[in-house]
Amino acid sequence: MLWSKSFIPTLREVPQEAESIAHQLMLRAGLARMLVAGVYSYLPLGLRVLNNIKNIIRQEMNSAGAGELLLPALQPQELWDKTGRNVQMEEIMIRFTDRRNRKMCLGPTHEEIITELVASNVSSYKQLPLILYQIQTKFRDEIRPRFGLMRACEFIMKDAYSFDINEEGLDKNYKLMSEAYNRIFKRCGLNCFTPEADSGVMGGSLSHEFMALADSGEDTLWACAQCAYASAKNIGNCPKCGLGIIEKKAIELGHIFKLGVKYSQPLSALFTDEKGNRLPILMGCYGIGVSRMIAAIIETSHDQNGIIWPKEVSPFDILVLPLNITDAKSRELAFKLYAELNSSGVEVLLDERDERPGVKFKDADLIGVPLRVVIGEKNLKNNMIELQFRADKRVEVINVEEALSKIREAVQGAG
Ligand SMILES: Nc1ncnc2c1ncn2[C@@H]1O[C@H](COP(=O)(O)OP(=O)(O)OP(=O)(O)O)[C@@H](O)[C@H]1O
Ligand SMILES: [Mg+2]
Ligand SMILES: [Zn+2]
């Protein structure tokens, strides 16, 4: 992409409304804009990051054997009456009556919908086990939307649901999802803890939260300074290595539950076992805050100048930055590299704006592409250009002839 065509409205000043670092940088880097409190538009850079995260999630879900579907956001309240959650989730549900006088809501989550779908399409043990997932917009009338994408009223979630004939099956799928989650967060550059959690409104016997440490987090956990151990409450010392555990603020990125028959019973999601008995399906549900992850990644990966994207989620692999686009030689090389990298499958952003180098460098730091190639007149006289690494500010001066191979190498390795 060319910078001037990409709609990247960066901001020099820290916006008034932004309460957290992630919120500030998200606005300053031109990733998203607020429509009303808790409701955001994703601009091209933000959408690229979102799509990268979605792709990682899809790859890991698919390889765990989960099937993707897409359920409606528009739902009848009637279904929610059957589980009692129309009352239980009253405060956060966005509800209304349509022109046919049907009582409807915008889905805050999808246990009821998927359970009813499976109830009417699965009847035998032969059709189980099954894991289904979707990546979809959820609506919650949150009491206090804040920190930008962190707590929004319209946000994107990945929700998965498992269906099993017995406890062993449920345990196996629960473990499978938990492992997939660890891979997803790792690939997105997020260091996650999983303290044992309270299953609250979802019910069921067991649940785990996936938490990233961050000062702006709304949750508290007790973490060991030495190992990856964390607990939901203060239990004194780390059971793994005996050291004291310390109170930390954390962001909840994912939550998984063993639901058992909580939804299958009231919604009659039954199967026939080998002996002909009709039994309720055992369920699990597994959520990830996809849009919240963007905020969490920024919160945990930035410096005073801007975002530092982990390689796999970065909106671009590389930024090509000619210092003076009006210099014919710089311009020619910049567009040549741009074309060559593009055609070899590298995601390139070319800052072809006629702006001062200072402006371009400030914007480059802000938007946080991990790797950039800087083309300057002085270096070019010696047939040289610079490779710059965003994270550690390392600079490598390289020959123009070896640029392509060096850049490809760096793109593979950066991050
Ligand atoms: N208002 C929101 N804005 C953005 N992401 C959210 C929001 N609410 C929940 N999420 C994300 O969706 C995931 C699954 O949803 P779940 O219903 O388990 O969340 P929750 O327990 O209500 O989260 P929280 O305690 O933060 O309100 C959460 O782990 C979180 O990452
Ligand atoms: Mg909530
Ligand atoms: Zn420990």
Protein described:
The chain is of the alpha+beta class. It has two domains: 3-303, BirA Bifunctional Protein, domain 2 (2-Layer Sandwich), CATH 3.30.930; 316-413, Rossmann fold. It contains eleven helices and 23 strands. The protein has helices at residues 21-28, 44-63, 77-83, 85-88, 111-119, 167-187, 290-300, 328-343, 357-367, 377-381, 403-413; strands at 32-36, 39-42, 67-68, 74-76, 94-97, 103-106, 130-139, 154-164, 192-193, 206-213, 219-224, 230-231, 245-260, 270-272, 278-280, 282-289, 302-303, 306-307, 318-322, 348-350, 371-375, 384-389, 395-399. The strands form six sheets. Strands 3, 7, 8, 9, 10, 11, 12, 13 and 16 form a nine-stranded mixed sheet that branches. The longest helix has 21 residues, at 167-187. The two termini are 21 Å apart. Zinc ion (ZN) binds next to loops. Residues 109, 140, 142, 151-152, 155, 157, 252-255, 287, 289, 291-292 line the site of adenosine-5'-triphosphate.
Q: What is the CATH topology classification name of the largest domain?
A: BirA Bifunctional Protein, domain 2
* CATH homologous superfamily descriptor of the largest domain: Bira Bifunctional Protein, Domain 2
Reported for the largest beta sheet, the result is: 9 strands, mixed
Q: Mind telling me which CATH architecture of the largest domain this is?
A: 2-Layer Sandwich
Instruction: Kindly provide the radius of gyration, computed on alpha-carbon positions and rounded to a whole number of angstroms.
Output: 24 Å
Q: Provide a count of the helices.
A: 11
Question: Whole-number average pLDDT?
Answer: 95
- The first-level CATH class name of the largest domain: Alpha Beta
